[in-house]
Amino acid sequence: MKDRSGIICEVITAVVLVTPALYGLSLAAPITRNKGGVMQSEIELHHPKNLAEALTLLAHYGPDGKLLAGGTNMVVELRDGHHNGKSLVDLSHLKELRGISKQDGYIVIGGGTTITELIDHPLIGAHAGILREAARLFANPLVRNRATVAGNLVDASPAADTAPPLLALNAEVQLMSQVATRWIKLEDFITGVRRTLLQPGELLYAIRWPVPSARSAGAYTKVGLRKADAISVLSTAVMVELDDVGVCQQTSIALGAVSPKPFRAHEAEALLKGKVLDSALIAEAARLAAESTRPIDDIRGTAAYRKRVVAVTVRRLLTKAVEVLK
After folding, report:
1. Where residue 251 falls among pLDDT bands split at 50, 70, 90?
2. Same domain for 179 and 222?
3. Which of residues 188, 210, 232 is at a domain's end?
């Protein structure tokens, strides 16, 4: 079976739980949306031949055009009637959005690159071990094979697994429309819960970050209610760069699931710059990082618990990174 048929079948299978008439639809057929058991308006599913055609469709539909990449969240929204667009543009087969490369001092990832591809690629292992570890702990193998890096970021969940390591790596995202391309710091791109700077007609084309120096090291941890297929209670990623005599040149401390959006603990980072990182200084930075959070109480943990654990994880990860560089 060709890729495009497989993609459509996946969408149909997810929606067919409430709309069995969808069996046998052609590629151009509309999908009937379900909401509260009542059939709503149809959604057109487009399968562009290339990136240029996808951008043309997005420009045409504007706010009514939505993107379908891995589909791990979108299919659920379709099933539950939470999708408000009139048109879906399927990007999952576009090779222009895939790939990992080293270009002009940056590691560059295509937005359509899957989470599994992050785990397997040697450039990620060599230059972004914290991202590889986050990918390894992401959901389950079936979801990792479908979910894309761009989809995880555009979804803008406070618990997005790829966001903290990419923030710690000083990543930028490249947004592309039919008429323009722009680079934005990832830290600025996600503005709140399920909110980003992505405009109608744009897609997230690529993610990049500077190749870390030879005198840098990172560490990552994810705290969940179980070891596999867990939404983060919190996640922490750090990067530390020391000079030849052990003085901190720069530090990144990124946190997820403890505020409305993944973020960098800049006050804690500033405390460490230009100093030798001993245990007391690291402990104070960890305290500042915990104080910078705005967690909530939910089914996975209390706000107080999250604050306490942030202090522990930041201290442990900074200590681990420094020890690697000694």
Report:
1. very high
2. no
3. 210
**Cβ neighbours, 10 Å, residue 104:** 8
In 3D space, the residue among 238, 223, 307, 312 whose CA is nearest the CA of residue 269 turns out to be 238
Pair 45, 107 in one domain: no
CB atoms within 10 A of CB 37: 7
Q: Can you say whether the dihedral through the CA atoms of 275, 281, 285, 286 is positive or negative?
A: positive
Same domain as 276, residue 186: no
pLDDT tens, 62-118? 999 989 999 887 777 777 776 667 889 999 999 999 999 999 999 999 999 999 999
pLDDT over 70 (residue 21): no
Of 210, 233, 249, which residue sits at a domain end? 210
Tell whether 156 and 186 lie within a shared domain.
yes
Neighbours of 278 (CB within 10 A): 11
Residue with tokens 């297929």: 229
Residues 100, 196, single domain; the answer is yes
Distance CA 305, CA 269 (A): 22
Together in a domain, 243 and 310: yes
- DSSP character for 102? E
Q: How far apart are CA 206 and CA 260, in angstroms?
A: 24
- Whether 146 has a pLDDT exceeding 80, the answer reads yes
- Residue 138: give the domain boundaries: 95-210
Q: What is the CATH number of the domain that holds 138?
A: 3.30.465.10
DSSP per-residue string spanning 137-198: TSS-HHHHHH-BHHHHHHTT-TT-TTHHHHHHTT-EEEEE-SS-EEEEEHHHHEEETTEESP
Domains identified in the chain, total number: 3
Q: Are strands 87-90 and 65-68 parallel, antiparallel or unpaired?
A: parallel
128, burial (CB in 10 Å: exposed 0-12, middle 13-18, buried 19+): buried
